[in-house]
Amino acid sequence: MRRLLVALALLAFVATPAFAQNVVKEPPGGAYKKVSTLVKLPDFLPGIGVLYVDPKTLPAGPFLAYDHKGRLVSTIYMIPIKDFEAQKAFSLAAPGGRVDHVSLYFNAGHPGVEEPHYHIVLWHVTKAEESLVAK
After folding, report:
1. What is the CATH number of domain 2-133?
2. What is the per-residue pLDDT across 13-60, written as a single tens digit (0 to 9) for each?
3. Which of 2, 27, 46, 75 is the most exposed place for a label (fewest CB within 10 A)?
């Protein structure tokens, strides 16, 4: 499973935008909805930002995360553990364009994605700029 996670992270670095939408400023267009209007979560999540998702793509996403000024900072995928264990294939697109770096971390579950999963965060800002969504 570790090799799969590393491969996913490397894929994210070369991922290109899968669809041409203007998503760099909040709110994104199309079918994206603010996550806090879909499930019981605050509008702004410290460490993540303001999240939008197309409900048809749940649970995996992509989720688009914005800072307090409405600027896209990351694209997040929430992949259930069971999908890794089933060795499912994933295609990670970065609708916001260039990916600076990737974070990968476990989450035991939360409203909207209750089952245990990994957050794969494709950061569109530098590591130092992650603080834009720290609080």
Report:
1. 3.30.200.270
2. 444 444 435 899 999 988 999 999 999 999 999 999 999 999 999 999
3. 2
